[in-house]
């Protein structure tokens, strides 16, 4: 069974080499695509030096667009989506594969432990969880997790990915409405998170708006 990894990356030069190397060290992956989403640093060079295949956007188009760009390139029977800033902890993605290999799930979603330092107030996560439950009847603990694995059939069925910060929520809703089996898997991965400062509040504000818009669109059948 062939396994492909897609990593959307924007200005991730400090972590992307370590992330790609950690994934390769598992010796389970057949191909790793890093989509450089208009980075202004050396993200592409760092990823390439670690052995990833590079796809480029000339400007920042967002995570959903990055995933759509890679969709036409991946060959795997199982597709793994990971963030660029996981560093050494990226190797723990292997826990996402077991339920799929055992035919217990069509999609797995990483469930992270709480961050060591509190970030926001949880409003964005609560909106995403409540909206997903309202539209699908399913409660998801970590609806915003970008770390997930799925069969190629699932991946193809939810294309194209939504733009903006609603990409994970839109994918969750489409996956569940299509009747695919989704399982959350506890994994202790480490990545960057927004803090309680001005930049963090601005980031969460944009997230909240995009997720709300996505949920409205899904409720209208778009």
UniProtKB/TrEMBL annotation:
InterPro entries to which the protein is assigned, alphabetical: Glyco_trans_2-like, Glycosyltransferase_2, Nucleotide-diphossugar_trans
All copies of domain Glycosyltransferase 2-like, residue ranges: 4-117
Gene3D superfamilies with a match to the protein in the record: Spore Coat Polysaccharide Biosynthesis Protein SpsA, Chain A
Pfam families: Glycos_transf_2
Protein name: Glycosyltransferase 2-like domain-containing protein
